[in-house]
Amino acid sequence: MSIIDKWRELQAPLREEIMYGVFHKNSVLELGCGKGELASEIYQKNPNIRYIGVDLDPRLVEDARKNLSDYNHRLFVADASTFRMPGNQTVDAVVSLLLMFPLNIDFYGVGKLKNKFHETAYNALSKQGRYIFGTSSQNLEDELLDSGFGVMCTTPIRYAGVFTGHIYDCEKI
Ligand SMILES: C[S@@+](CC[C@H](N)C(=O)[O-])C[C@H]1O[C@@H](n2cnc3c(N)ncnc32)[C@H](O)[C@@H]1O
Domains (ranges, CATH) in the chain? Predict the structure, then answer.
C-alpha cells in the first residue's frame, strides 16, 4: 500500500464523520481543500451543495478546479487564517482536516494558527452553523468555546490502535 493509500485509510473515519455532518446542508466552506478530494466525496452525497474551498497552494487549487469541474463550486488561493467570505456571505457548515496529522506531526506548521482558523469559521458561518474540525491536538474544547463555539461531540480517531487525533463537531452559539 502506498503512503497516499495509507493516508486515505487513516482519514476514512474522519471523512465519514464529516460526510454525516454536511450531506444535508446547503453550503459548505472547506479550509485547506487540497485537490478537492473531500469535496468530491461531499458532492457525491449532495450534488446540489454550494461548495467553497480555500487552500494556500495554487497548484492544488488548480487540480481541485479540474477535479470538481462538474460541480457548482468556488475555489480561492488564500490563507485560511485570514480568509473572509466575499461580500460577507455565510455558509451553514465549515469543515477542515487541515491539522489532521498522525502522531502530532504538524506538517504545515499551522498548529499555532488554530485560533485564527476558528475565527475564519466563526465569521463565515450562519447562526447555528456547524464547524467540523479535525486535528491531532487534544483538549481544544476551551479554545473552541473562547472562539464562540459549543462543542457538541468529540470523537477520538485511532489508526491501527494508535491515537491520531480528534474530530470536533461544533455549533456556532
Ligand atoms: C492534509 S491536507 C487536506 C486536504 C483536504 N482537506 C482533504 O482532506 O482532501 C491539508 C491542506 O491544507 C493546506 N493548507 C495548509 N496550511 C494552510 C493555510 N494556512 N491556509 C490554507 N490552506 C492551508 C495544504 O496546502 C493542504 O492542501
Answer: 3-172 (3.40.50.150)
